[in-house]
Amino acid sequence: MNNIIKNVLLGLLGLQACIVVLEILFCLFSLLMNKKGNVFLTEYILENEKQNVIMEVILRQMIRCCFLLLRIFSGVFMIIFVDSIDLIEDDINPSISFGEERIYLISPNTTVRKPYLQCFLRTLSLEILSFLDSEENVLLFLAYFYFYSTYTDFLLNPLAIPLMLILPYIYRKTNIKLYMKYRLLKPLVFINYSLALFYGLKAALFLNKKLEYHNLQQHLHILFEFFDKNGFIRTFCTKENSKCLGIEILTISKIAYVHLIGDIEALPDNELLGLLYKQIGLNHKIIEKLLLWLIFIFLEILIEISALKMVKELIVKRYSRIGRFFIVYLLLQISIIPYLTCVKNIFLHNFEYKSDEYAYKMTNVYDLKTVYCKQFFLNEDWMSISLPFNLFYDSKPSINRKLDQIIQSSIK
């Protein structure tokens, strides 16, 4: 691998590591100084005796940061592993297929002094390369390694662990002819297969509770009055016995599909109305959000295509075109794409702030802040303390920033 490219990739990962370490330090400071965050959130915690709960939230955030650090260090190992590929020689025998070519290690230059960790990772990479023995196996190893390192966050969910462990076995048992015929495409097929299956299983876990349709006229008359006033035909759906608390609304023409999640009936009418206007504010931005997603998908594809054309031979010289393309794709995913996601999150956060602004203009600010605090604790949301971490890893602003923004905007 070209040294300049390697240093740039390691630098990008290093910046991500600094952001995560900074978040851990802020969490430690919050625990030691007993600082809960926003003034209104602190008052809510004291009034409702949620001190132990907020400590658990901060500890959970620290555990999340540890898993993210593990993901970043896995990316560092992947870069060193790819850099080690050019330290092997191919003993090509024209009479056998490419998948059976043997590789041998070049003797390392022991006179050059390097940091212990770098030497250890380099030696480990070379040992793995000698064991894998072929380009096909190396690419498949990178695909598996990328999958498990990317989804370390899901290890926090006990239900996801067995799914992650059996996924390669399911993949192997459901092989298709394309996979068997074009062996070097196996890694790319695995990545797309795993994404589709894993998110499908995640959605199944989310929707495992029974949905019940019934008349909510007695408890939620305020919602009916609102939609009747605006001439909407209403369709209501509730998710019973859910920890989450929220309202989802989708309006198509004059039909309003309202999804009530959790113990929504326990909210007073004023808080329920604030939650309703918040969701309506988000619906006003739904077209803009869709366009934003499409623009950033296009930018991601454009960046990947440009990088594949420009630097594929600077990353790995000895592999086939498909192999070089796949390796460049993985390196982009772990190093550059997170920064593109950060830019996208800035716009998504702004949409949230705009919907909050719409909500507090239509209802009471205090009620809106109160229901946000209830949502935060009941939904067991993440609480990012530092702004860089919030922008990098959360598509929604943290509870502290939402409350700060509401207070500042209401003063204006």
From TrEMBL:
It comes from the Eukaryota. The keyword Membrane applies. The chain crosses the membrane at residues 12-32, 62-82, 145-167, 188-207, 290-310, 322-340. Keywords: Membrane, Transmembrane, Transmembrane helix. This is Uncharacterized protein.
